[in-house]
Amino acid sequence: MQKGLIFINSQSLPKQQQKEDGPNDECISDKISHLKISLSSTLDHFFPLAGRLAIEKHEDDNTISVYINCNFEGVQFIHATAEISAEDILSATFVPQSIIDSLIPFNGVLNYEGQSHPLLSVQVTEMSDGALFIGCSANHSVCDGASIWHFINSWSAISRSSGDHTSYLPPVFERWFIKETDCPIRLPFSFAEKFSAVRNTRNAEVPPLGCLVERCFGFTKPSIAKLKARALELNSEAKRSREISSLQALLAHVWTAVIRARFCLTNSHDENRQILIALFMNNRTKLIPPLPEAYFGNSLIGGDILVKEGVLLAKGFAFLAASLNEVVNSHNYEKSRSFFESWVEKPFIPSSGDENGIMDIMLLARSSQWFNKYGNDFGWGRPSAVKTGRNGKYVYGITTVSRGPVEGSIDIEICLPVEVFKAMEDDAEFMEALSC
């Protein structure tokens, strides 16, 4: 996972660190030192991030188990400078991935490499206009989005309060397993062989994004409300039950526009072409008993829809919104338990896309508008923007959901070919929601 925060008004230090006189480079030096100290203090509580992944071999049945070795080897901290400004990123229509690559560490590093790589890497970059970019890359097999933002929120709180450890919610490390699960979970020995083979042979260069670029669309609270009202109006059953959430309506609006644009650009139309639409959902509240809010680890489950392109185009945005709602409503403990049990019985390693790294089309939503991304004040104000790194962006239609900078707004970052974005700009129905 790669998260980045841009701080434009970063010239001022926390009050406890301010000096009456002194050059700017001394202020920056103090600020970097303060960030290191507060990061170290935060890791006292989130100590698994300072460890490494380890593999234990079980000779009795030729299996392995993977665990976090909390050996306190530490995290990586990089202080860098860049000849780019915050405006170079914020003013661009398409996010310049080559620029973001230089600001967030561990591009292309895979989770299993946490055996030798730190589980967390932080890069603080001074930009040419005085802005600061804080980039964090965390091993996704150790924690999910909820947990890494919990860590970043806690780090900023401890930094802002100059080490006051009462200003954050302590993480919970108690593990959750299905009853009667034999621990540790044992995996085929071939997994270790596969890890070693890939680690020794894979190209060290960061793979290209191919034809994909990323663009961020911002939607205001009023425009989202209008989309939800329209989805409810067009779905009589949903209207009666008041179902279909704001996010479901918003994703349906964006993704239907993507399919319309793609269809218009395709020379050979195939209405029977299958489109995979998927959501990553937080599993914490669905387990029995529910996991605590501060559970640190992974608790995600996926839900998907397989739909024919012609059906989606004919039935439109309201149909997709209702379908997304159905997927979310079907997410329950029984489904989670069934997935966990089947995985333990027959483990598999998820991969990113096809052999070329990019699937034909898969609209996949990740992250959440509920994560507190804009509340991270390290002592010089809140961030002006939130960005994500390239990892995980090898899929056509990968969609990152974020809370917008204004209360109630939502930002949708999506990876698509440039020509699809240009076709969406000519789509009056799509653009109307952006202008509200």
Automatic annotation (TrEMBL):
<keyword id="KW-0808">Transferase</keyword>
<dbReference type="InterPro" id="IPR051283">
    <property type="entry name" value="Sec_Metabolite_Acyltrans"/>
</dbReference>
<protein>
    <recommendedName>
        <fullName>HXXXD-type acyl-transferase family protein</fullName>
    </recommendedName>
</protein>
<dbReference type="GO" id="GO:0016740">
    <property type="term" value="F:transferase activity"/>
</dbReference>
<dbReference type="InterPro" id="IPR023213">
    <property type="entry name" value="CAT-like_dom_sf"/>
</dbReference>
<feature type="region of interest" description="Disordered">
    <location>
        <begin position="1"/>
        <end position="24"/>
    </location>
</feature>
<dbReference type="Pfam" id="PF02458">
    <property type="entry name" value="Transferase"/>
</dbReference>
